[in-house]
Amino acid sequence: MPASGKRLYIHEVATRDGFQNETRFIDTDHKVALVNRLSQCGFAKIEVTSFTSPKAIPALRDAEAVMQRIARVPGVVYTVLVPNVRGAERALSCGVDEVNLVMSVSESHNRGNLRMTREQSFTQLRDVVSVVRDTNVAINVSLSTAMGCPMEGDVSIAEVLRWMQRFADLDVHGMTLCDTTGMAYPSQVGNLCRHVVEAFPDLELTLHFHNTRGMGLANTLAAIEAGIDRFDSSLGGLGGCPYAPGATGNVCTEELVHMLELDGYETGVNLAGVIDAAAILPDLVGHAVPSQILKAGRRLDLHPMPATAGDAIPDQDAFAHRGP
């Protein structure tokens, strides 16, 4: 059934979640130019960078310079990842709109990714909340491996809800549930989202899918059906996770918006502008990107009739090898 114009909100994460996985350092000028370009495309939110230690993520060592130089567009929320109090202080000095705090629902993934227990992560992030809470900066918490852990397997809904409640008790503004290594599938997503929407009606809820196993767009539709209206996505499909080596990255922004618009949803995103922005990525990062829209074009990007179309039609046997 068509969506009849239901409003959805798209959060672009390529310049943080995408660029942090790239081996080539993206020059600060290019980062600023890309954020400025994306700011004109109608995104509800742009995750610009990460205020993690430059030693930990050298690809984003220019976080202050990028945040201070971008041209901000009214109505766009500029968010950044912060891991600790020091990162929060750096981010606040740059006038960010929102800080995004991250930990894993899975103990194994949290230890592997952040080298801390979940309790240690929670304590550290609670300190960040205490620093930011008295400002006008919003706080979002992203829970990794909310739909499966590559070391532990399935993650229970009860465990997801338990960690969400702990952060909700700290009065955070929003929460993002992350399918960190692309383990989610549609019926699972729908079930989880229905529980979450019912349990936390006052939180701004976002879903963050990876396309590791080709189910990112299907999972998005399942989440929408369950009442979610905010989604992270990455230009060109950039991104990934060290625990899914060689895998496709985040759900691709242009593929997501293309699908949603065809189904009648209102995203506010200028798809043509996004495709133009995605087209510069291969030169910027030095390799091809997963985006199928860049390869095949939009559904109604039509092509000229082949020159041979006016020739006499051969007998049917000539088409036997062509397939449907």
Tell me what the structure shows.
37% of the residues lie in helices and 14% in strands. The protein has 324 residues and is an alpha/beta fold. It has one domain (9-319): Alpha-Beta Barrel (TIM Barrel), CATH 3.20.20. The chain has an eight-stranded parallel barrel, surrounded by eight helices. Helix 10 packs antiparallel against helix 11 (271-278). The longest helix is centred in the middle third of the chain and has 15 residues, at 118-132. The chain is globular. The mean pLDDT is 93.
CATH architecture: Alpha-Beta Barrel
Structural class: alpha/beta
Strand content: 5-15%
Helix content: 25-40%
Q: Tell me the span between the first and last alpha carbons.
A: 27 Å
Query: For the report, how would you describe the main beta sheet?
Result: 8 strands, parallel, barrel
Within the CATH hierarchy, at the fold level, what is the topology? TIM Barrel
Rg, Å, rounded: 21 Å
What's the overall average pLDDT, rounded? 93
Spatial order of the strands in the main sheet? 1-2-3-4-5-6-7-8
Number of helices: 13
CATH class value: Alpha Beta
Beta-strand segment tally: 8
**N-to-C series of helices and strands:** EHHEHEHEHHEHEHEHEHHHH
What's the name of the CATH homologous superfamily?
Aldolase class I
Keywords:
single chain; 324 residues; alpha/beta; TIM Barrel; eight-stranded parallel barrel; 37% helix
Compact overview of the structure:
With 324 residues, the protein is of the alpha/beta class. It has helices spanning 14-18, 28-39, 63-69, 85-93, 107-114, 118-132, 157-168, 186-199, 216-225, 253-262, 271-278, 281-285, 292-296; strands spanning 9-12, 45-50, 77-81, 98-104, 138-144, 174-179, 204-209, 230-233.
